[in-house]
Specification:
By secondary structure, the chain is mainly alpha-helical. It has a domain of 69 residues. It contains three helices and two strands; from the N terminus they run E-E-H-H-H. The chain is extended, with a radius of gyration of 23 Å.
């Protein structure tokens, strides 16, 4: 049992995580580095939200990043498939993997 919940064995053989009810007792403390990280994340989300209000069509920006990620993922898959018979990637493939 942990502060956040427990693992319960299931009849199928796997374990299921059962969380404790919220809010936790005692409540979590936000101090020091955790508070600073949360503040930075909040500011970044606010900036992103602000950009979303300025752009005429936010979906175009999102689509650009989705396409970029899909292309990089496909290129990595192709690079992994093109290995030498010994199982090592060829030098151009090694260079691509290192730069990605």
């Amino acid at each position: 049992m942990t502060r956040s919940g427990t693992y319960v064995n299931q009849p199928s053989g796997h374990k299921a995580f059962i969380p404790k009810p919220l809010p936790p007792k005692p409540p979590g403390a936000l101090e020091g580095d955790l508070q600073n990280l949360l503040s930075k994340a909040d500011m970044s989300l606010a900036r992103l939200d602000g950009i979303g209000h300025v752009l005429p069509n936010v979906n175009l920006l999102i689509a650009m990043y989705v396409r970029k990620e899909a292309l990089l993922r496909r290129l990595r898959t192709l690079a992994i498939q093109h290995v030498t018979p010994g199982g090592c990637p060829s030098p151009p493939v090694k260079q691509f993997i290192a730069s990605a």
